[in-house]
Amino acid sequence: MVDFSSMMDTMRGSGFDTFVLPWILFLVILYAIVLKAPFLNSLEGTGQKKQISVIIAAIISFFIINFRMSDGRLVGEALTTLFGSMSLYIAGILVIILFLGMGGWKMEELPGGKTLMVIVLVLLALMIFFNTGMAESFSISDETATWLFMLLLVGGALYYLGQGDKKVTGDTKTETPE
Questions:
Q1: Does residue 101 form part of some domain?
Q2: 30, 31, 85, 116: which sits with the fewest CB atoms below 10 Å from its CB?
Q3: For residue 152, is it within any domain?
């Protein structure tokens, strides 16, 4: 009898998660991009546009999957690490959202609302990017990182100060005149 875990081990050993799945991912994305490419507009309605788009997307996908990053890993291996780590972070966020919901909080009532959500998502994406080792492909000096941090800090301060004074009256927010 074949159990699921031995089947997954066999698939993993044959490169299913580091080659086949990433290749299909890039194939679909590139196919959609090439299908909309203007250089194939002359083939519209002949049926050849889709066939040529599939061939181009498949070839480029093979090149992408075969690419080795600076740390020696193939792109498919990096994607496996990325999506695995991402699932752990998403599970953590869901737990936090569940606890906030049990506490009676609503997303609209959180301070900052959508802006806070965007900041949290960007920080989450950066954490995943750096924790999966994908940041090793980029070399950023300490000085550059310090400048980027200072620019973000100054930009955040300017954004905060540019909001003006807001006071809450009832259910609506109104800006106080200056």
A1: yes
A2: 116
A3: no
